[in-house]
Amino acid sequence: MSDPTGLELKTAGMEAAAESQKEKLERARDAAVEIALSRDDRCCHMDLVREKVGDLGPAAGSLFKGPMWRFTGQRILSQLPANHAREIKVWQLSRIHKIQKRFPF
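-> C-alpha cells emitted (105 positions)
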C-alpha cells in the first residue's frame, strides 16, 4: 500500500473538519445561499458568510464545495483584520441550484 498523496490528505482533512462542524457548516451554507440570492450577481464570499455565522475554522474550506457553486475567477482581499488582507475567492450560485430550488426532484 502506498502513502497517501497530498491531495488525498487534503481531502481527508477537509472531510474531517466539515464533519466536526457539521451543523455550523450547514447554517453557513444556508447563509451563503441566502446572501447570494439577495444579490443581483448571485455572488458570495467567505467574509460575507462569516459576518452572519462566525468563524468556521478549518471547515470553511468546505463551504463552497459542490455543484451549487462555481468559482467566478475573481479574488478579493479579505476585510477581516485577522486575515491580513489575504485573497479570498468569489463564488456564484449556479443555475443548476436555481432550477433545483424551483423544481426539486
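The longest helix spans residues 22-37.
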